[in-house]
Design brief:
The chain is globular and about 55 Å long. The chain has a single domain, classed as Metallo-beta-lactamase, Chain A (4-Layer Sandwich). By secondary structure, it is α+β, with helices and mostly antiparallel strands. The chain is built from eight helices and 16 strands. The longest helix is centred in the last third of the chain and has 18 residues.
Length: 278
Amino acid sequence: MKLGDLEFHIICDGHVLLDGGAMFGVVPRPLWEKKSAPDARNRITLAMNCLLIHAGGKRIMVETGAGGKMDPKLRDIYGLDGPSLTRELEKFGVRPEQIDIVVNTHLHFDHCGGNTRIDSDKIVPVFPNARYCVQRGEFDHAMHPNERDHASYFRENYEPLDRAGMLTLLEGDSQIVPGVDVIVVPGHTAHMQCVKLTGGGQTALFLADLVPTTAHLPLPWIMGYDLYPVTTLENKKRWIPQVVKEGWLALFCHDSRVPAAYLRDRNGKWEPEPVRVD
């Protein structure tokens, strides 16, 4: 899809299965299972959607999925069916070494696991010529997570990049290249960032885990994984109405059926109008 001179594609690094109750927090199962039917282990299927962006003369990846480093036990727990990110990139004629910039909205394993790979007995960058951009506060927390969220962080996804001098640690809202900006939107983590794309008078917003799927559009439908759910609520109240009012395209990181949609206010409810992004 093109926004003026900016072009982007949605690329999926396969799927991850996460606990349905955790994904919908205080929402009762009889309600959320109508939107996302769970399997026998109470897990729902979530896409790991990433963006390939051509802007400012650069090739940019937003998110890298879970990658392929997890051992068989963890791959079974999370139902991982990838990795497929580099294979999908090949369909667009892009090799990993041609990526200039990688943006991680945050450092949970399903958003940055494809940053690195195993080569013999070493962990090496998947995108060897890229600079990897993440908020400094997110990186600091990922290096020292607490008991509540340590299971979501795997140092091999980002620590080798720091040692190699490939990390760019951002301090708040920042422009990556003209037309690609990151906006700090705390709630899921303290320093998660969304990605705003602008061009040709149009705007798209990659919502990251602020609104991971279209099922999470109602204000109280907030993940149990969120460290600061009330802050998530405040940011949903701020950003979703702006997306609706200004006609932005909403991009969803975990929705396998509707990865992109315009949001319409219909009788006080936000409803997605799916858009195909090739």
